[in-house]
Amino acid sequence: MHIRYPNASTLLVIALLSIGLTGCGGGGGSAAGIPIPADPTVASQDDLESLFDQISLQLSSAKVGSDLAVALQDKRSIVGGELAKRASAAIRTRLSEIERIDDQLPLDALERELGGLSATKRWDVGVHAEISAELSDELSTTRRVIKERENRLSSTSEREILERINLLSNLSALSGTGSVRQARYAQQRDEILHNVSKEAEEAILAEDYEKAQNLLGIVQEVNPQDEGTRRAKCEVDGKVIVKRFNDALETGRISQTIEMLTEFSETDCFSDIKDGLATEAAPMAEAFGMLGQESVAEGDLSGAYRRYQDAAIFSKLLLDREASLPGVQTFLDRLDEKYETAAAAEEYAVAWGYLNAMTEFGPTTPQIRQKLRQMRDEISRRAVRGLTAYPFEDPKAAATKVGDAVSSKVVQHIFRTIPSDVRIVEREQLERILEECNRRGTCNALDTADFIVQGSILDAKVETTEKSSSETRRVLTGHEAVTNPEHTRWAQLAEKERKKTPEPSRTVMRDVTEDVTIQVTNVRKVGIISVSYRIIEASSGRVLFTDSIQTKQEFQDDGRQGIQLGDFRQETDFVELPPDIEILSGSGGLADNISEAIGIKLVDFLKDPEDQYSLDATRFVGEGDFIGAARMAAYSIVLREIKSKEIGTLRDDLKGYAMESPPL
Fold it and tell me: Which one of 331, 424, 573, 596 has the largest count of C-beta atoms within 10 Å of its C-beta?
């Protein structure tokens, strides 16, 4: 620790003071003490340390127990306490700037700080004890964690290379930079890495590339910035991908081969090995193109689509050019025929998929753009589902009918909140459509509703209660004349004094107050509406969602009886409450409130149908229904585009579903 020694002038002052103290025999006198700053927290560190040394020197020569000794001890406690607090704060600041490992401070930093606490102890024992205990607790925790890691290391198998390396790295960091313990852990870790790297080199020489890939992956994870390891692993990755690629081709797993290549193209190593793969890419792309042509000749358009895609991927990723696809025009002509058939059968999603596949391998002509727009419009009309609501049924005995208002406001809320998700079919319009359907025997599904909202008003009433009571108040009812006390006192004066004093008024006016009892009538109205409601699938009559809800609204007011007593007059205060019909169905009334609550729940059920469409598409694929899958995928795409949502792979999925669809 650096100790600041007093300079010569300071020593001279102290010597003179000491002589003075000796002459006084240790009494109070002149050395009542060295003056200390009124606010030690603003004093400089050097001034406080110098002052602490001066006080300590005087205290050493003062008589124990004397007034001077007590005064000096108090001053030294103030100065020393401030110095110790500053030292503790500096320690905490330094430790806060050190990165923790698994929430622990490194061992060397804690040991270093604990070893430097002697000055703090000299300045203030209490502060020293506090910071020492704090550091000791941290030290004990770090040592415990190190012991736990050491136990895990000893129980970890030699085959678990990455786990052992990670444990040694962790132990090295917990030990702290420059310590013997840290150096030992680092050396053990480096030895393992050296052995792993050497084993990887041997695996490469033995052409065991998959083993080398795993070993180099361990080294790269531990040292991600090692460029040499990265290049070596990229080279090995390339050899592994070529081997797996060739194996997949030999066994006929072409789709797996393409997926493997596509995934690998997204890695950092692809550019390093691309040239090596490119030598085999040209004949492979040509072979895939020929396979596509053969599939077209065999009438297997789905197989042709996949092989042409494979050829295009090979050419794009490895050759940086467009693929040469023999027979692709015949393929496009067949797709156009498929499109016409699907459109005529009103399978617009499948038709849309065919058009998208055509644009993948051929030009997007104005005619194709027009067809794409037409198909999209047809799909959009079907993707947005129709909804109507019948009037909610009122109780037969209900005095106020609110069912029609509730159902209408529910529909308004739904359309106002999710206009892109539902298409409202007015009830009157639906009834006319159904009449026409019955007359013709056929019905256009687009003109009808997909969902029907039905409900029943279980209760719609206003309960009124009236409670009478009274209140008594003391009120001013008038005024009266009474004898003036001042005049009475004046009359009692001697005649001589009365002549000197003006005569006060004989009487004064006084307020007259009386208790008045007023009849009070409290009227309370509680409006209640209870509704059960449901969503029904129009095509099947199946109940998709059902719920019930109740809401209340309370009003109350007091009326007071009119009364007059003397000068006091209380006007009649009539009860003012809204009428029952306004409570139930007025603006902001119960019908509005419960309609809003029902609308919120139905919106939660009906919103974002595109998510369900995507799930249904996957389900249909599992069931082998590719037409249904295409329909659901197309609906999801259209709604996501309307809402500017991510489409992901849905468009590619749609093309695949269309190509897998059976003949129409």
Answer: 331
